[in-house]
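Let's practice the habit of predicting before peeking. Look at the sequence and jot down your guess about where helices and strands might fall. Then scroll down.
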Amino acid sequence: MTLQQLTYFLATAEHGSFSRAARALYLAQPSLSEQVRSLEAELGVELFARVGRGVVLTEAGRAFRPEAERVLAALAGAREAVTDVRELSGGTLSIGMFGTASGFLLARLVADFRSRHPNVRLRLVGQNSSAVAEDVRRGRLEAALVVLPVDDEGLEIRPARREEVVYVSREPERVRGPVTIEQLAGAPLILYDAGYGWSDPTRRQLLERAQRAGVQLEPVIEIEDMDAALELTVSGLGDTIAPKAALEHRPSFRRLGTASFAEPLYDDFAFIARRGAPVSPAARAFLELAERRLAEFGEGVLYAGVAGEPT
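Done guessing? Here is the structure:
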């Protein structure tokens, strides 16, 4: 059974004649009649009975007609939905962002995208980069901005930005010079992203360094939120790590001291999508806009606050 056969059947039912249906569809009558006969043969019933020079639906034809109409209506709806997505006039775009992405960046991106494509719905999922990457790989998200490294199986990765990660302490003597991995292993360490632990991309880098050096990293406190880890550091409960730019855009944390690592540590940001999978026009437009905004705003926008321009 083909969509063409359903179209020919419905046209014949509407016009009451093979010849009139063929003229309406700009076809030769034998072609239309042959397709209707093939449909009847497949169904094992006659759909039309001849009456004079025309045809009328049989009981089987009357039962079949609403089903054929439903199939063609569904096809038209599917085509319309695809057209909406193709022309950015509808549909939902699901994009992932690393969990600590700034409210400022997201607010500007959403405002810019919605002003250009007001009929496209946005679904922004913010969580740890390892989880975001898995959602992209499984097709639950179309694309994402993540922190590397992530498992790149089945993913296309396009580097976007690099931000230095520093050691943070309230105690000046602990940040007088570059911090080694051995010093980090002996520090009262507070680490965020507790739910993802050592699968978190930044923590993975530190773990690999510790393993190469033959030392263990054992935080005294683990907590989910980066700002909460910084608050605990302000309270003197331990030291933490954080992107340098995150401190610059959080005035309440500027009194904390920082030091680079002896082997500099970076958060490398990248756009990811499923390898070999087509990217929708909406996703392509959003990613191009994100890339452009990152270049325009300069360093620190990834962690800037919601209110005001990045400083």
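How did you do? Confidence is low (pLDDT under 50) at residues 306-311.
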